[in-house]
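INPUT
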Amino acid sequence: MKIREIMTTNCAVCGPHANAAAIAEILWSRDCGSVPIVDERGILLGIVTDRDLTIALGTRDRRASTIRADECMTRDVETCNPDEDIADALEVMLARRVRRVPIVDRNGHLEGMVSLSDIVQASSRPGASIPASSLVKAMARIEDRSAPRQNPKLAAAAK
Amino acid sequence: MKIRELMTKNVETAPPETTLAVAADTLYRKDCGAIVVTSRSGEILGIATDRDMFIALGTRDRLPSELTLADVMTKKPVTCSADEDVKNALDRMRRTKVRRLPVVDAHGRVAGILSLDDIARCAAGSNGANVSEADVMAAYKSICEQAPFANPAISRR
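OUTPUT
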């Protein structure tokens, strides 16, 4: 099954200068946990999660309206393209220990997002070739606390 | 398998007056996603996740040092006890759509925390656990179904 068949295409996006208060409104109203950051042409620049933002705001003790997406986004983001198999997206999640992968075309233009829960939901559909054992292993691995995976920039101001 | 065998014992706890500036530092340093809020005598009062904290900070636009865990926590969260079977906990997560259950003793004192991922790690291993991969998948699906953000303490104002 191709990523194209299960990815979310109408995902909310923000520009790099969006502040954390604006991002909070999006995460709240769209009930999502992360927002891809794109430039004016729609090229993916990075991603921010609710966790990144909590840590960035809290450890610097700043108001949400005073911190911008480009101050706390993860720039080194692993992506997939829409014609890859959903197993490839799962591979990225395992390797990077993330729950969400941005999907881009060959020019880096954001096409959508795929989450672990999208893959779990799709796994029971015909044509999905991912066994439950692989998904459960992925869930266990992504949250493995024995291997830290913090974005070092997040707590830049933390002593 | 009993919850006791699988739970994380050194759960991060903090009193309700802890500011979100201090709580965020704990989330970062301890690489955890939630803090269990306890009274002076160790009884559970609530739980606050990284998401709860961010939605409150972002939508209220206040300084993290001005908001406390008491302002954002889910009060009286769903819990489990250490001597229950892991299968019960998984069932409770599926029904209540939460990924983490604080583990409390008969007096409501916090003894640990059990996450869906702990159970996934157990099901993925081969140590004779009585939870199947299918059970874990069913719980995960239920939790991920679009559930409205359900913490009444978090609102725009």
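end of record. The mean pLDDT of chain B is 89.
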